[in-house]
Amino acid sequence: ILQVFHCFQEEKPQWSCSLKWAAIGSSIGTAVPVGYCTGIMNSPAQLMQSWSKETIAYRYGLHLGDFGLELLWSATVSIFLVGGAVGSVTGATLANRFGRRGSFYICGVLLALGAICFYACRPLGSVELLLLGRLLVGLAGGLLTAFMPMWHSEIAALSQRSTLAPLCPMGLTLGVVVAQICSLQSLLGGVAYWHVALALYGILVFACFAPYKWYPESPKWLYIVKGRKEEAAQTLIKLRGFSKNSSALHAEMLSMELEASSMVAPTGVIKVLRDRKLRLPLIIVCAFLGGQQLSGINAIFYYSVSIFRKAGLSAQASEWANLAAGSLNLATSMLGPVLLERVNRRPLMLLSTFFSSVFLFLFAVLLYFIESVSWFAMGCMGCIFLYIFFFQFGLGPIPFFIGAELFELSSRPAAMALGSVVYWLCNFIIGMAFPMLQKFWGALVFLPFSITCVLLFGLTKRYLPETRGLNPSDVAPLVTKGFKSKVQ
C-alpha cells in the first residue's frame, strides 16, 4: 500500500520551478507592461497634449487648434489599439511558426523598442517617436492576448490550469494600477518626467527577458505541431517534475500521440470561420472578449478621472479615487486563481454579468440625476466600485482563456487570434466613440454597457458549456451543433 501511495505521489504533477518561472516571469515581463501602457495615458494627458502642441509648432510651424489637438491626441491614444488589432491578426501565424515561447520573445522585443521610443521622444522633441512607441506596444499587446493564455494552458497540467488561467488578465490589471501610481503628479506625472513614466515598464521587460533561455516551450506545440517528441518529453519532465520512467509521463505522451494522430494540419483563420462545427465556440470567444470591452470597463478607466470630477471630487481627490478603483480591480482579480480552481466557469460568468449590468444601470441613472439629490454623487462612486468588484469575478479573467478550453490544438491559435482581434477592435471603438457619445447622451451612455452585460448573461446561460477540469477534446463535441447545441 505504501509503495502504491508513493508511486501516486511521484506521478502527481508538481509545481516545478520551470512552471512557476514560465507563468510568473511571462506575466510580469509582458502582461504587466501592456497593462501599464493602457493606464499610463490618463493622468498626464494634459501635459502630453501641451507638449505635443508646442513640439508641432516648433518643428513644423503648425499651430494646432482645439480640434486639431484633439485629433492628434485621439490618434496617440488609439494607435495603441490599432496595433493591438494588427498584432492579434498575426498571433495565430506567429504562434504556429515560432512557437509560444518564440511569440513571447517577439512580444518582448516590441515592448523594449516601445520603451526606448517613449524615453527618447521628449529629449529629441519627436511626436513621431511617441506615436511609434504606442504602435509598437499595441502590436505587443495584440500578440500577447493571442498567445499567452494558450501558452499557459499548454504548459500546465489539467489540475493546474485553473490557477494559471487568470495570470494574463491579472498582469494587465496590475500594470494599470502600477501606471496609475507612477503617473501621479507627485511622482512621475509632472512636466519634467512624464516621458520617464511612459518608459518605466522597460525595467520589467529587461529583467524578465534576461533569463530567456529558462522559459520552456509548450510541449504540445513541440510534439503535435513540430513532431519533436524527445524535446517534448524533456520539457514535460521539467514542467511536471516527472521521472523519465514515470507512468504519468508516458500517459501524457500517449495522450499527445493520440491527439497528433487525429489532428489535421494547423487550421487557418479562414478555415475556422467556415467550419460550422466551430461557429458556436468562436461566437462565444469573440462575444466574451468583445463584450468585455463593450461592458464599459475600459471606458471607466480611460475616463475615470473626469467621471470622478463630474461626481463632485477635486482634481487631486479624483486621482486618488481613480487609484482606489484600480487597486480594487487588482485586489479582486487576485481572487481569480482561488475562485477558478474551486468554482465552475458558468456560475462565475453568470454572477459577474448579472451584477455588472445592475450596477452599470444604477450608475447611469444616478449620474443622470446627480444634481437633483446630494448623495447621488457618492452613489455613483459606490456603483463604480461594486461594478469593478463583480466584473473581476468572471468578465475580467474568463474571456481571456475560455478559447483555450473550448478549442482543440489545431484550431486554437486561429480562434484565439480572431477573439483577440475583436477584443482590440471593441477597445478601439470605445476609445474613439465614448467621448463623442458622452457629449450627446450624457450619463445615458452607460446604458448600452449594461445591455451588453445582459446579452452576455443570456449567451452564457444558454450556450456556454462547463470547461473546468475538462480537456478541450471533451468539451468540443458539446458545441458542434451550433445554436442547437445543448450544453446543460
Q: How would the global form be characterised?
A: globular
Helix content percent band: over 70%
Radius of gyration: 23 Å
**Which sequence of SSEs, written as H and E, runs from N to C?**
HHHHHHHHHHHHHHHHHHHHHHHH
Strand fraction equals under 5%
Structural class: mainly alpha
Low-confidence stretches: 1-9
The whole-number mean of residue pLDDT values reads 83
Report how far the terminal alpha carbons are from each other. 40 Å
- The total count of helices amounts to 24
Sheet with the most strands, sense and barrel status: none
**What is the number of beta strands?**
0
Walk me through what this model shows.
The radius of gyration is 23 Å and the shape is globular. It starts with a helix and ends in a 13-residue tail after the last helix. With 488 residues, the chain is mainly alpha-helical. The protein has helices at 2-11, 17-39, 45-60, 66-121, 127-155, 161-164, 167-182, 194-199, 202-209, 219-225, 229-240, 247-262, 269-274, 279-294, 297-302, 304-310, 315-333, 336-342, 345-368, 376-391, 398-406, 412-441, 447-463, 472-475. The longest helix is centred in the first third of the chain and has 56 residues, at 66-121.
